[in-house]
Amino acid sequence: MKWVPVDNKVLGFKETRWKNNRRGYHKLLPLEPQTTSLMIRNVPSRYTRNLLIQTLDNHCQLENRKLSNGGNKSAYDFVYLPIDFKRRTNAGFAFVNFTNPKAAFRFRDAFHGGHWNLFESSKVAEITIARIQGKAALINNCKCMDFSDGLEEDMPVWFAPARDGSDQVRSKMFVVGKFSWAKMKFGN
């Protein structure tokens, strides 16, 4: 199934802003000028890595259509959606690395404070700066993680070339971390 933007909106996400914010949550925090890695908080628990990738592809495709020149395109090259292995749901947050700061800023501006409308979720997205910045640093941080209790689809991934939501770029996906492939093949 191919995604098609409807009224310039990203499938599975509804842009809204909280006007009366007493607790200080969902406040739009400034990003550092060189920020490329973001943490997405309040991800609905039934969201999967593949759904998140589809959402990111949709966003990048929509943003890149708005650009008049080819510079500073929206593209991403790393995604990690941590999983609670006992419940088989995500942990409610994710990490994404964009290829340039402007792409990260555009994502933050589009998603921060918006509602996820898949799965009838009332969660409000909160986009913050990831503690670890850059694809190489994120990969280095995740490469020693043990995912033997999970599935390959639970692992962090990086892409070459980066994904920009277009059909013209065929990215190859690489998993990061330690995983028992024998378990996956033989059920051990």
Assembly state:
single chain
Let me know the largest β-sheet.
Answer: 6 strands, antiparallel
Mean pLDDT: 81
First and last CA, distance: 34 Å
CATH class category name = Alpha Beta
- Poorly predicted residue ranges: 1-26, 182-188
Task: Tell me what the structure shows.
With 188 residues, the chain is of the alpha+beta class. The protein has one domain: Alpha-Beta Plaits. 23% of the residues lie in helices and 21% in strands. Strand 4 (83-84) and strand 5 form a beta hairpin. InterPro entries: Mei2-like_Rrm_C, Nucleotide-bd_a/b_plait_sf, RBD_domain_sf. One of its GO terms (molecular function) is RNA binding. It comes from Helianthus annuus (Common sunflower).
Please render the helix and strand layout as text:
Elements: E1 13-14, E2 37-41, H1 49-66, E3 76-80, E4 83-84, E5 89-90, E6 93-98, H2 101-111, E7 115-116, E8 126-129, H3 135-142, E9 157-163, E10 172-175, H4 181-186
Antiparallel strand pairs: 1-7, 2-6, 2-8, 3-6, 3-9, 4-5, 9-10
Describe this protein with a few key phrases.
disordered N terminus, disordered C terminus, 188 residues, alpha+beta, two-stranded antiparallel ribbon, Alpha-Beta Plaits, 4 helices
